[in-house]
């Protein structure tokens, strides 16, 4: 499997530190608001990376943090008249609601920065002791000059970065590129006791500290949106490697932006759609399909028209699945024939192709094309004369591949008639088995839905009452 590594600017063979295991850290949201569909793309992409790694047999430890203390959190909490903690609690809950709806699997751990303050203080202290950080009036800064390879992720040396930076005259810093790892308390701000007085952590230090604490000194994959490459990830590398003397992450992955009219979707430009509002109109399949139909390192422009066409495309794949599932209950032949066995085996080539595409730096765009090829093949070759076993094998294959992208897992809604008839049959069986508790439960559950069962000499009838 190959991954494009931002650090080396090359596609590299993926070799995890421990065979069969992947330690992965993704920078998560600042929880001061609902997340927008741009953030959503980044979350969906790395959820897909994780799902695919799991599909390929890796055991993945997947960490995604919540930034629950920073200027934006403090300002928003003040304007709402609630505490920063209350604000964080509220939007973490909202995050889970939307992420779940987008079929984003829950992380192994979602650490909150404020729950690691003690570890962060120790980290800052270690940086000072090792000579990489210095204190000025209760603030602590990282000394970029001391870290010889500063700029390696950005692909620029310190001088170039200094020249490119806005001149930020801050007499208290030794160098304009130095950044805060600890910030002294300003009036009205939440703060924690530290050796440098009351204060709070800088943003970059949280990720360095929590990644180390949960995953260890060196991790396999560190990921986030493209905007985090510099300075956030550069600074994470500097802090972590300064403290441990070991490589921080072996592979760095960055997801390209979702744009609106060619500008990055962002809260500050006010050109965003929240995931919540999009989810009111579209389901996760359409949204994930749109986000995955382009390669993750290519920006996408977000429009409702594109989302509508993603919805139409995914429906074509569902037509194939639904058709197969209808055939499963309709076909006359149960067991697979020898010819059908050969045919089913021939479909393995689509799995191989899918894996080949995904193994090439998670080329979801081409992997999705393979799904269409597979569905076309199935539509042309499986029909009412096929066996049930063949239909089942085909549907399993589509769902298996879809699973690794977090799509195509929905089941068609049964119509009411079929569903009730199935429940009636189940109740009759329960009665035959003298399982009267189950039989009564089925009748009561239906009653709660205003459906009354009547035993007649012709069998069980049902009617809906108001
Ligand atoms: P934030 O809450 O702004 O820290 O962002 C959470 C994640 O979303 C980070 O990994 C960002 O890099 C990513 N992100 C922010 N804006 C966009 C965008 N327009 N498109 C894609 N990813 C984004
Ligand atoms: Zn981070």
From TrEMBL:
Keywords from the UniProt entry: Aminoacyl-tRNA synthetase, ATP-binding, Coiled coil, Cytoplasm, Ligase, Metal-binding, Nucleotide-binding, Protein biosynthesis, Zinc
Main location: cytoplasm
Sites where the protein binds ATP: 267
GO CC, alphabetical: cytosol
Cysteinyl-tRNA synthetase class Ia DALR domain residues: 353-416
Biological process according to GO: cysteinyl-tRNA aminoacylation
Motif 'KMSKS' region in this chain: 264-268
Record keyword Transport present: no
InterPro entries listed in its UniProt record: Cys-tRNA-ligase, Cys-tRNA-synt_Ia_DALR, Cys-tRNA/MSH_ligase, CysS_C, Rossmann-like_a/b/a_fold, tRNA-synt_1_cat_dom, tRNAsynth_Ia_anticodon-bd
SMART domains linked: DALR_2
Locus of motif 'HIGH' region: 29-39
Cofactor list: Zn(2+)
Localisation: Cytoplasm
Stated family: Belongs to the class-I aminoacyl-tRNA synthetase family.
Protein name: Cysteine--tRNA ligase
Species annotation: Clostridium saccharobutylicum DSM 13864
Gene responsible for this protein: cysS
């Amino acid at each position: 499997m190959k991954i494009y590594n931002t650090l080396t600017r090359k596609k590299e063979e993926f070799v995890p530190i421990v065979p069969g295991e992947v330690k992965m850290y993704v920078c998560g949201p600042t929880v001061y608001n609902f997340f927008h569909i741009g953030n959503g793309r980044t979350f969906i992409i790395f959820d897909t990376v994780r799902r695919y790694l799991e599909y390929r047999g890796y055991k993945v430890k997947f960490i995604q943090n919540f930034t629950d203390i920073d200027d934006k959190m403090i300002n928003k909490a003040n304007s709402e008249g609630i505490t920063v903690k209350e604000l964080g609690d509220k939007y973490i809950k909202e995050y889970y609601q939307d992420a779940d709806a987008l079929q984003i699997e829950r992380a192994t751990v979602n650490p909150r920065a404020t729950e690691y303050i003690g570890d962060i203080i120790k980290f800052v202290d270690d940086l000072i002791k090792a000579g990489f950080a210095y204190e000025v009036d209760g603030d602590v800064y990282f000394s970029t000059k001391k870290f010889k390879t500063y700029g390696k992720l950005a692909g620029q040396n310190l001088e170039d970065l200094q020249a490119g930076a806005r001149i930020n005259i801050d007499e208290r810093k030794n160098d304009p590129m130095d950044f805060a790892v600890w910030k002294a308390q300003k009036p009205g701000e939440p703060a924690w006791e530290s050796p440098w007085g009351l204060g709070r952590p800088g943003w970059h230090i949280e990720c360095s500290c929590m990644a180390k604490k949960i995953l260890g000194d060196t991790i396999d994959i560190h990921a986030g949106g493209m905007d985090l490459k510099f300075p956030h990830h550069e600074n994470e590398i500097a802090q972590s490697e300064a403290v441990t003397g070991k490589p921080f992450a072996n592979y760095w992955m960055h997801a390209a932006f979702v744009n609106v009219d060619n500008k990055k979707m962002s809260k500050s430009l006010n050109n965003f759609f929240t995931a919540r509002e999009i989810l009111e109109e579209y389901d996760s399949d359409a949204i994930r399909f749109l986000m995955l139909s382009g390669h993750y390192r290519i920006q996408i422009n977000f429009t409702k028209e594109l989302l509508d066409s993603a919805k139409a495309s995914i429906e074509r794949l569902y037509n194939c699945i639904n058709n197969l599932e209808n055939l499963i209950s309709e076909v006359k032949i149960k067991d697979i024939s020898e010819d059908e066995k050969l045919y089913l085996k021939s479909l393995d080539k689509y799995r191989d192709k899918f894996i080949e595409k995904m193994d090439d730096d998670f080329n979801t765009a081409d992997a999705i094309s393979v799904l269409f090829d597979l569905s076309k093949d199935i539509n042309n070759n499986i029909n009412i004369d096929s066996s049930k076993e063949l239909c089942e094998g085909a549907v399993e294959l589509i769902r298996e591949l879809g699973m690794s992208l977090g799509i195509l897992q929905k089941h068609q809604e049964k119509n009411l008639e079929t569903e009730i008839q199935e429940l009636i049959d189940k109740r009759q069986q329960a009665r035959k088995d003298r399982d009267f508790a189950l039989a009564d439960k089925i009748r009561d559950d239906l009653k709660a839905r205003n459906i009354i069962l009547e035993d007649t000499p012709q069998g069980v009838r049902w009617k809906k009452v108001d």
